[in-house]
Records
---
Amino acid sequence: MSLEALVTELTETGLNSLDTDKLRELKRICKKDNGIHVVSTFNVLLMSLSKEHAQIRYSGLQAVNELFIRSHQFRLLVVASLPQILTLVFGAYQRPLPRPPEHAAKLKQLAAECMYSWVEKYGAGYQRLVIGFRFLRYMERVDFRAAARVFRRNDPVRIEKSRALHVENRSEYMLRALIAVRTGFLNMRPVIEEALRMLNGCFAILLPDIADLFAESGDSRIEDDGADIEEIMAVMAVNRHAVDIDFNPSRIIEAKEDSINAAVYDVIRDYLRLCVTKYEPQLRAWTDRLARLDSSSDPELGGLAEAVDKLKSRVVDVVPKCVDLGIDLAFIHAGSGRPDDEKSDDEFEDVPEDFYKTRNTSGKRPALESLSAPRHKRHQVFSLLGEPGLESDPTYIRPELLRSLQPRTTRSANASSTKSSSDFEDKLRETAPVVEYGPDLMYWGQDTVDTNTSGLEIRHRFLGSAREEATLSGTAADNLKKRAVFYSDAIKSQDAAGQREIKACRAPLKGGRLCPRRDLVKCPFHGPVIDRDEKGRPQGGFLVAEGDEETPSDSPVGGEQRQSTVATAETVNEIEWRDLEALVKLKQLPVASRKTKKEPPAKSALIDIPIAKHKLLELIDTDRALIVVPFHFDWRAASLRVLLGASSTVALLLIVNGAYILAKGHPQQSRGITSVVEASLILLSMLSAAWVLTRESRLEAYELDKRLRAVAGEIREWTGTYADLRTPQLPTVTTYMTLRDGAWRDVPTLLLVKDDVIALGYGETAPCEVGLRTGELAGLVLTRGQTLAPELMRSRLCLECRLWDPLSAGHQAMAGRVLFLVLDTPLRNHLEQIARHHQRTDKSVLQNQICVVVRLCLLRILPIVAAIAVVANAIIYGVVDVGQRSLRHMAMETIVGKTAYVLFPFACTALWPVYWIAVRIFTNACEVVLFDTLQRSKTEYEDMEDIDEFDVEALPPTKDISVGIGAIWGRMQWLWRNCDYQNLSRSSNLSETLGNITVICSIDKEGTIAEPFCTPEQIVVPDADEEDYAILDLEEQQVGSEVKAFIIDEGWEKYLPSLRPLGLNCGVNTLAHRMGKLRIDTTHKRHNCMRQQGKILSSQDTCLCKISRAIGFTNDDLARFHMLKEVDVFAPFHKATELLSRKDISAVASFTSAVLQSEDGAGRLQMLTDGNVELVLGMCLDYFDGSEIRPLSDRTMAMYYGLYLNALQQDLQCLAFAYRPLALDTRGLTWPGWGSPEQPKTNKQSIYVDIALESPVDESPRQFVAVVQAPAELAGGKEESHSGTEEGDNGVAGLGTVVDLPDHLTEVARLASIRSKSASTPPAMSDGKDGGFDYTSDDLRQFATEQDFLRDAITEQIFLGLVTFAYDPKVDVCDFVEDLSIAGIRFVYFSKAKGRQSKSFAERLGLETDWNTCILLSSVADSSCDDIIDDGYVEDHDIKAQLPRGIESIRSHLKEVDDIPLQISLFAECTPDSTREMINIFQENGDIVCCIGSALKDANTLTFAAADLAVGIEPIPHFNWIALGSNQVAALSGHDVANDGSISTSGALVTQYALGAALTCIPCPLFLQHDTSLYTLMQVISEARRLVGCIQQSGALLVASCLVLVLINLVCSLCLLPPALTGFMLLWVLWAMVPLLGMALLFVPHDENIMSTMPLKNQDHVSDMPRFAVYALIRMLPPIVVTILVYVTALERMLSDVPHLGQLASAFGRADWLALDQEQQWAVLAAQTFAMVAFVFHVVCVSSTLMYRTRSCLEFVPFRNFAWVVASALCLLMTFLFAALLLAFGEAHIGRVSWYTYLIAFAGPLVLLPLQDACKLHDKKRWTRLQKLAKLEFKTKLGQHSPL
């Protein structure tokens, strides 16, 4: 058996213990071959610990523990992987343990025990164990107390050591405690004695001693010195004196407080306070401490304890005496000396009232004697109250305690005779389940039960018992012995009669009786309840222990009595109660076989986990392989092949030249060895670059695959937690009501799986292929994206002209929805579409610029330079070497060697791709860390201090935060090693794309760029004065910490009579006041059931309590009304729904009516309604204008209906409000909830009512004039007086709009509808005034159902007014859009709404909404509007320019007309496909597109993939809140605390929304939280622009340095001189110095004007190349001249045989280079070293001018860049050290170098810097001109006829 198979069988049994044989085999494998299999075993066990099942991990941990305590090598492996193991077995790092939950708890407990034992035994040798233990204890809050107890039980040696240490510490403690008690007691004892003496003296004054009383009577037998009272009583008994005794204690003590003895009582109170508050607590503490001390520790302990105890008893006895004297102890708590003293005394402390009661500190229950008599003898004055001798008095009856403190024995004599049982019975009793102790067990088997069990005395000492019997009756006692067990309704429903007989257990008991306990499943003592005979023996199949057979209980077996073998405790101990209950329900209770043959191996006991997420995981694992991004680097590119070929050629030439020099040179030439070494370094750099590029390409190609793996990991760890949304239904959140775990959950589209049941409402689209699963309509199938339209169901449901019945096709809990079965998993199609459409992101602008420069250098400059070098060197060899000197052996040196060193700088660039990768990782790390920091920051964006906020050209606000280099470095390390699945920085070219964004497009509105809640804008109420309407504007303002709504119109108070009923409707109907206080601080969702019934408008799901508060209602006002019923009315087949469909509003016309009852009285109800305007208007016959109720005429109806249509045109949502008073006679009414109001915060009853459109009259539609002057959104006017139309000659005056009033809204139709209903009802109902009731009890009984009554009651309502709602942009969004234009970035909004609605919202955003600013992307054939002309634009409004219609016309328009589609910011009637196509058009024309959209809309994924950069935005504010209960919620840290800008959900409790967002945002590199400002994106773009500019300047420095070095060596070659810089010097400069300076340029400070420049488009890259070439030549000419001059002057001075500089070329031209002596070789090397130093110095100076492209050194001092200062100093220092190292061992005479060589070398910057600034100045002028042209760029083919 293989190791994997063995571990699998060992860990996947599901049992609590491991198989010993398999465990022994595993240990044997580990020991085999000297433990070489330990590593393999550990890896296999680690894989078992990683499986998503708690039972497997439990068994795996047991195996790990067994090997851990036996193998040092295994312990090292465990310690090395400790963090991973802690995560798997403890759920550390916020990683929850897998299911089942009960086994997960056992796993965590076992892990705690193992970890504690490991630390105790091996912690000294393995420090990481101790660190992990502390991490778990203090960071993860793991409780190790139970583990410690288990460890102590199992380790007696450690227990003994601990016990010895404890004894030693206890002895020392007791000694210190004894000394402290003795000292304190001796100091306080005299004070307490004095207090007691004063109290006794006061007692004696108030009540003299009884002996003194007898002395006054003159009895000679009583001596004056005070005889003993007992002797006196004895004498009195002998002489039999007749004494009259009054046994009333109050008659004995006659002392009363008066003016005479008031001073004595005050003294008593003062000392009593000291005794209560100070002396008694101190003495009690000393007594408790002495009681805990060991008596053997000190011989004086006993005496000291006795003295303290006696003194404490004396103090305690004082209090009852004071009580007997009539002193009220309340003064101690009141703090006064006398009861009537008003003056408080703070000197004493309060104590509990029961302090004087006898304290029991031992923890044991006191004996009976201690409860009946005091412990010490009391003063004689009070002896009659509690004297122990009273028990001998014949008149005394001792109180009896009726509660027995010891358990009574109830077994009979026969039962007690049987003292032993079988061993098997003992085992059963050991494993028997424990039942919670209760009254039934307390009185089990008792014949009589006492009534008084409180322990109080019920017998008087003289009067006897209070009643004859103190026991319960037989019936009451029997009921007390029973325990009630409640079962679910599902069990009861199994019985047809509604009742189910619960059988008795009837198991045999000792004594011959049968167990009478009744239970449904099992008896707690005897197991499952089965059928038994009259003797208790099982009948039929029963559970027996293995190997046992049934034997009667009374038959001896083997000389012993054997009980019945119903071994339930041993057989089903692994089956839990709920499992047994489920088995009983299914009638599948396991019955053991009575056969003795060996049974087959039992199946695994693993518990099944829900398979929904496993379907998703399987799908991700199979389909993610389809999503592969091609390698970024194309090895077939011409420039790359030229670079590799050139580098290989140079390396080959150097090797050949070096080998030839080594072979032919004499004396030995050192440059031969260096040539070979240099060639080796070139080849090594090529291999390194190839490895890095290949690795980077692979990491980039698998970023999406890695992200899908990460999402799969989160799904795998998902525990099924579902969050509760607190926002209305949003189109940007595509969730579906899905039946999961027996409850309806909101599940995102991408988490649906096949065979899920979803509830679709009308207007909702199908997430995938779904099939109707109800009744006769099961054949209906909806495809993906198909809308469930009412027309689709009308033909199927309206059989025989019957109306739509939702209960026949829907679900009773959601009557307005239809149940569908999911036929396919949406994630499958989602991944397939991503694989089909997602491609590698095109090269960024920066990458294209680099490619242009590289192609120029490698494909043009390199061949030209190579040709010049080869031709020139060949001519030199032929003319000079052969023709003049006949040195034919110089061919190799002259042609090959000199040409190789001319081309050597090109070969050095083979390593530059590695630098590019490092720079790219650095910039990506900067962007990600900055984005993360900005999201974590809680500060607000603020403008700079010197910027005017009203300045149009002002720079955008920023957050003043700093990013640490440590965080960037850590992120760089992570990016270098891993695929960036969190931010996709490689495949998205994150930093380069951000730095060149030209378009930011928003594809969503609600929750992304607008608030998720629609806010009320205006209130429309009837105006009584003008017989018209008034429009009042609402505005929200910040008041302290709250946001309140206010009506901002002046004089709005005169409309209060009209506003009050509407405000009451808004306040009561939304139920906000029932959830606690009236919530006005935040916008919130309504608390009703509308959204469960069907798809509604978001305004219907938004709470309106802000309107109620603005009108003046308070929470107390609204609390007087209680809701009886919530009536949810839906009209899917109504004309109102058709109107919404034509306006592309996916909702069903509906309204909600609340039936309310006030505190005034029952029967008088109010029905308040709000909802769809057209639907509510159709239910109204009158309207209320604030003073009276008037008929709702057709003209008035048309007026309000026109307002409604106008609101829809302006992208507003509109609700109508109405009410109806109801007077019901509820006597005899059987419908629940109508009799009395419900209490607050209780679940109200929601009733679904559907209505259909009926046309009782046959009239044609009529036209009416409506809405003439309406402000702002409704009518466009801005007058304060919002009056309506005035009648003129033709009935209408002023500007009006003709409205086609639907026939069902006409007055005739509404009245006819009412008459038709009245005709179908009894006459009493038609009158409606019988006894003052609208509906009498007889009327109500005529309705078959409650829905029928409500369908009639919602008619004949009174119209109150309208409220319009709008989606306001988020905070800072409008400013963000405005600042984008300053930054040269165009904001584009893709709207799915019509053109007019889209323009309305665009106007709120601040976009241009004039003519030619909106293009419709839908084709003419797709449009359904009636008010459009042929091209689709609204007539007389938008037809001012030649605009394309439809996405298919955009490209032709760009080619033939103009580029308006590339200039405007608004596109309407967009679909996801047309949006993606438009983004592609943007990219084709050079735009870099950033797409922002909702992270919970699955249709956005492909659009995200099409954009250059995508940003997912959290659309809902409480997206990660989980409902824990009725009043508790838990906030998650995922995105709120630990969000790093990625879609990773690690570190948070994963919900369905987090997983849905992760799957939707697969192509998104960045993720914005809901409350994160969009300015975060702008600040990240600003930083990216800075980094891109720095990279461009760094690249210019590198390229210029390479070309300059090529030119320097070429000039030297043409001058017959050796190369000015050798190969290793070139490597030093191009591999170390120049890259270091280029890296320092990345830290240039931020340019404040960087966000006011136009970004470059991704086309026509480096179009002005000649101008840049001239700039480069001018700026690099000084380094070229200076380097050559330094080289030749130094070489001339170092060679002794060269008389002057003019003969230097001829001297080297005539010399044999293979025969140079050591002096000549060192002279050349020294001159080359001087040239290298001069070049590096000038490169440093040139880099100082490359901080900014156009700013001179005077505008920006280079020393402000600290990184550049350090890098420059480091470059110069290292170069000087390198030069010193080269010259230290040479024979060259450095002192020969003349002073002018140094002057040339270090005075060059005086010429260099002015040339740099001159070039910058010229470039700035050109760049400014190009910026202006870019802002005004407009391409047109129309010439002067162009609209621009």
---
Amino acid sequence: METFYPETPINHIGGIIFVNGPLQLDKLKQAIASCIRTTESLRLKLVEKDGETLQYVDSNADNHIPAYEFSTHEHMLEWAEKAFKTPFQLLETSLAEFAVLKIGGQHSGYFIKCHHTVADGWSMKVIIDKISQLYTALTQSSSIEQEADNHSVFIDKESKYMNSPRFKKDQQFWKETLSDVSESYLVQGTDQIKGHRQSHYLDRQLSEKIYEFIDTHHCSINSLFTLGLFVYLHKKYQQKDFIIGTPVLNRSGQKEKATSGMTVSTMPYRMKIDPQQSLLESLIDIQKSYKAYFLHQRYPYDALVKDLELAKAGYDQLFQIFINSYSTNMVQEMEGYAVEYIELYNGFQPYGLQVAVKEWDEKGQIELQYDYKISDYGKEDIDFLHERMLLFVENILIQPKQHIKDVLLMTEEEKQRELYQWNDTAVRFPQKQKIHELITDMSKTSPDRIALQDGSHVMTYGELERKTNQMAHFLQTQGLQRHDFVAVCMNHSPELIVLLLGILKAGGAYVPIDPEYPHERIQFILDDSQAKMFFTDQASSYHFEGDTYNMYNVWDDLVQYDPVHPFIGDAEDVAYMIYTSGSTGQPKGVMIEHRSLVNYIMSAKTHYTDSADDHFALYSSIAFDLTVTSIYTPLVTGSTVVIYRQEDQSGFLLEHILFDQKAKVIKLTPAHMALLTDAALSQSVVKRMIVGGEQLPAALAKRITEASDGRISIFNEYGPTEATVGCMIHQFHQDDGGTSVSIGVPMPNTEIYLLDENQQVVLPGTVGEMYISGEGVGRGYWQRPDLQESRFLPNPFVSHRRMYRTGDVAKRANDGKIEYIGRIDHQIKLRGYRIELGEIELALMALDEVDKAAVIDLTDEAGEKQLAAYIELKEKELTTFLLRKKLSDQLPAYMVPAYFVILDELPLTQNGKVNRAALPDPLLSQMETEVEWSKETAIIEEIIVDTAKDILGHEKIEPADHFYQFGGDSIKAIQFIAKLKDKGLYLKTKDIFTYPIFREMAQVVQQEPALHISQEQAVGDVKSIPIVEWFWSQRLKDEHFWHQSIIVHSKKKMDERIMQDALKELVIHHDGLRLKVHEMTNTLYYDDGMQHIPLMIHDFTELSEENVQEALKEVGFQLKQRTHLYQGPLIQAALCQTTAQSHLIFAAHHLLADGMSWQILVEDLMKLLHGEKVTAEILPLKTHSYQTFAERMNQYAASGDVKEEFSYWQKEVQDIQPLYQVATNEGYVKDEIKLTKALSVELTDQLINQANKAYQTQPHELLISALTQACYQQTNQKKISLELEGHGRDAVQEDIDVSRTFGWFTTMYPVNVNVSESFSDHIRAVKETIREVPNKGAGYGLLSLINRQLRDHSAPQLRFNYLGEIDQVLKQSSDYEMSYFSSGADSSLDNQLTTVIDMVATIKGGQLIFHLSFSEKQLSETDMTQLLHEVERQIERLVRHCLEKEEVEFTPSDFETVDMSLEEMDSLFT
């Protein structure tokens, strides 16, 4: 686990033993130290040898126990929680920590933290008991026999077991028990491990009842709550087969139980729920099976995971839920004072959820503790779970014989809300009338209104009434009787609608058939329906037992029939029968009665119309029940049915309807809606779109709304044919959340239930199958009693009602609206995750470039289950690589399809739904990946392919090939990633899921972290950072004159015009050059008006070389003297021309620049001067601005990381000591003396390039070693306080890059070095001292100058700064040279010096040069010269010492995972 989650406290165990009284702390320390000496596991350490991690017992373990005092209990807890979460460094260090605690005057205790490799929960009891016994003996001056325990007993025992017949027997048991594990409800966890803990105490009365119950039924409390957890999981996920984890002690006998050590292992526990069993029967089963499992508990869990080959199936664990029960009796008192054990939580989770049942509360209260991954659960989820556990307990205590299927785990209020409150939809409607009677009523009140319009032909309501009555008479004369079926296979026309209404008036029911159906389907419907008559509008070639009529042959004969017709039948008669697809491949007839139809149409009238001018378009197949809405809703409203036919139009019919500007209401499917263009939408008069048939993507609804400028209201209507067109409705709003539009709430007189397989209501907020009840439920299936019985069921919640089982799954939100999830048969399981294919389809359609999408699952050639996406694109240029990239931003990696197939059009059924059966084979049709090619990516591609050949064992792998098609799986993915890492390429597991094509991997593989940085000009104010605050705190007499400067010397004359242009481009590229100071606030801001660096031109052609040097100093002085902080600019330049050479002086106020900035500036200047053209476009991309850095620094200042550094810096400033006696407290620039000392090129090379190997040091660590030794030799002080400078650009380490940013980033911080006589000891001590400084000193400035938390203190007298090679930037150019200290004084002579001794070390021309400055009023030149000589001497000694060493000497900082002192490390190697 440490390999997967390094440097986290995930394996920490322990807490606080809090004593309600004042213990004798010195005795407590002795007791703990004695416990460590006599407890081998507390002295266990880990060491790496030959690539293996080994354990050993350290006989010389450090027994030092620190003591801490706290004023309050809260402060103590705050400290303990922080200390507990500090990770162990693992290798060669103690894996157990103790501390003695004093809290106020009357409380005490101790802190214990152990790594799980040395202790488990049982060990905590062993250790705590032992410390208590030792303490009691010490305080009573009595002796106690405490033999050192023998931890090796566990190792010996384990070794014997692994080679015993018992091992084989246990292995066989687990293989048999879990052989069909893939059938169980395995859940894949996230790779996030941050956790949280919630604790709940059961009240004492309930706890007593639980104890009484388990005593009566002879079961354990663990079994009881295990059943509770299983019942909850069963109810939440509607699954029956679960595996959870539980710990097992693996100890036997008194000796083992009295020995501390990590023996606990994990045991899977599987339960197959039988909903027909009672709670008590299930509890007894659990109790029995637990005992059977425990007989085989010793078999290692890791071995079991390997045996079952889980990784091949994509799982990393057998379970993600863990249950544990603690009934350990801890020490109750010490020295007469009550003891409380405060268990601490490490904040990280190996499993998604751990439920702990604790019985150690002295009041007899049971505690339920929930530890959970915050990436998997939220607080509300755990509150919900806890409430279910309480309801389970309540159920089993009161009704132990209740069947599991009948246990709801819901409060009465929740049940009432789910079943009745959300379904309170009763509305009055004309339930005794038939649909044609309502239309007849309209014809009487508005006979002259237009009922039907077909092009230029119209029919009024009066004409419609007469024609339909005549048609009814005709049908009856031809033998049609009440309840007879009439098959109708016609295109849209006024005659069609007259026929349908005539059939209804004659007492019959119509069977609509789409003329476009295949011949076989039409023939089947004719045969199956046993229709009495068959009407068509063209010649028929079908075999039909009854009479066949051509509507147009009948039409002219209708005039002879009576235009008045009496009403026949009642509202329970069937109005129509629509055939829908069946699971057997043959369609099935769904019968809908008049009463159901009238209820729906009246609801549609209310929701979809507000005027008699809301005309409906009739264009869709009469065999599709959305057409029902378009025919009857307008006819009961008094508006017009506008008829359209595809054969009349060459283009997309729906688009023509919009351009025609007659219909104001259209009903359509999402697939058809997606085809509508913005142009058509903007010109249409449509007010409402009713969408049904499929899930409606929110992105599509949003596009339609926006394209119509909000004129079109979209209603999402859900309903199967069996529930009369629609039974749920939701009006879309732009601010609706989610990827799909909600299906809303039940329509009037409708109940929607979300139920499990036993028709019990599901838990609130969980997924259940939708059942529909109410007036809309149809009569059922024609002649399909088997299907009728399974789909149309008695309503168990409302008497004398039926309900229809939809096969759709959904969940209800807190506001009662229902979110459609998909079909039960569209839910799949892949790599341990349950996936709803519809969710992926919606995510794809939410992409701007994707028009339509369908997703399927398949088994590929390697036998692996994969996802394939079929896509219709708006933009044909989109590549699979970009598709994956965009989709991976929306979905987890496991939901990104492995295959993409781009189609010109997705195949649709007649009803406008995606025809999945007609989708091509994705393995043959997948889209070729296209990526940008470069020489670098070609090299990376080659490395990736070679690595894949190695890992996957295939020689013929090409860049365009697919990882999973060559046998890739989860294990191989991990191996592949590890192998690439060895080659300097970095991928994540999710990258392989998302980008399985090797060529695509080459595009996303990382060689180092990539950041996206704005290239726009920085504007506005800049927050202050510590170094800027430090500058203002100096209160210089002349704050305007305090500079850094350089000179670039050119052996050739520079062109003045090109130089002007170059300086202008530098200002464009480097925002920091435009910084100025607000006079009122002394804060920095960007001057948008600054266009260039002022350049002065000086002619030195008449001067001698010696005079040139003096003149350069004079010009430099003038530049600096002219600088004004508030008026700016803060940088200026001068080009000084001699006869054959040029000297370019840059002078910038120090607020603007640091040493590294000059190297950046000069490097870019060279590019501009020697580029093809002088433009900032040729310069490298900008890194983050100084402004961004300052913002991040201020955020960092408020972070917990900086607060944690407070105690470190508080101690460091307390230890600062003066180095020299100074004659006066202040020194001034006018009194400054500057000394230099240059080492030879040979000595410099030895120091920088060779001496570092002996102690694995950095050059500055050796320089500080030599400097502090020199100070010791001169002052005889063993503690040397230094003020160190760092470049500061890495102070904020996350997601920020200022490596090429011009600005002042310097950090300054104190370091105290204890000098050792031995060179070896001293170098190692300095190295560790420097590396122990938190975050390279950045926190010191934040705490002292930004947060103002450190008390005022004196700075060290000696400031040291190692700049490294200052001429590196011009090394490749023999024509240029750069100097730092040759343009005169950088500070006003009247300014005070900011430190007593300032030492800067640089390398120039291969020589290390020390620049030392000080005030002659404070120190003597003799002493300072002597100091420089001593530094040189110490460097010579140090180099000689290091070069003579034959072996490398390591220190703790060389091992990142080790936390130990130098002394502890030395003890391991002596």
